Amino acid sequence: xxxxxxxxxxxxxxxxxxxxxxxxxxxxxxxxxxxxxxxxxxxxxxxxxxxxxxxxxxxxxxxxxxxxx
Length: 69
Fold this sequence. Notes:
Elements: H1 4-17, H2 22-34, H3 38-51, H4 56-68
């Protein structure tokens, strides 16, 4: 709802509890992307791909983030 810093903190806490929750990395990556933090977004998308190599959305988002970098 517009509070990206709080959302990033929540996703980071979730990741710290269980780093295998790919959707937390994916969603945090989306916020980083929206903030123009493309390297951080790419890092999160890389983790998602490592967790689930079949998650096509992460490949797409990573590619778009690379194109912005």
